[in-house]
Design brief:
Elements (H helix, E strand, L loop, with lengths): L1 E9 L3 H9 L1 H7 L5 E8 L6 E8 L12 E12 L3 E8 L10 E10 L2 E11 L5 H21 L1
Helix pairs in contact: 2-3
């Protein structure tokens, strides 16, 4: 199992970034890589609260982990520190053993030069998930998050 670490600076206060991490409408907009659409089945933003999200490829050539074109994952929020950190544990819904296993995603926010520094750490990537692809997906998603929170 491997991990990725992504850093991004945004020109917005930590409070605004934190709200976007836990607002279901915002998550549907930013927490989805380019070329995919998001469907949020369950989103309970409190410690112990459940998460279940499906990401579907727009192009018919995209190969999903759950179905032919969709990645569905479920999980739970394990730690929420207001305006500082969101930690969730997720797992793909799949029959493929190389894509199974719990992954821990920690997003930490710190004040920085006119805004907020975001550190997203994705640990426990299953062996069937390319760390480079995971890193690219997170870079794209965090760029969407930055655009969302910087717009106000």
């Amino acid at each position: 199992m491997s991990s990725t670490h992504i850093r991004r600076h945004v020109r917005a206060p930590r409070e605004r970034v934190y709200r976007a991490l836990l607002d279901v409408r915002a998550v549907a907009l930013w927490k989805v890589p380019d070329g995919m659409t998001s469907h949020i089945h369950t989103f309970e933003p409190h410690e112990g609260g459940s998460i279940r999200i499906s990401l579907t490829y727009e192009a018919p050539t995209g190969t999903g982990k759950t179905t032919a074109h969709t990645d569905t994952y479920h999980g739970r929020f394990v730690k929420l520190v207001p305006n500082e950190q969101v930690v969730e544990v997720d797992e793909f819904e799949t029959a493929d053993p190389v894509l199974r296993g719990e992954m821990t995603i920690s997003i930490t926010l710190t004040d920085a030069d006119g805004g907020t520094d975001i550190l997203a750490v994705h640990e426990g990537l299953p062996s069937g998930v390319s760390p480079a692809d995971n890193e690219l997906g997170w870079q794209l998603s965090l760029a969407k998050l930055a655009a969302l929170v910087e717009a106000g």
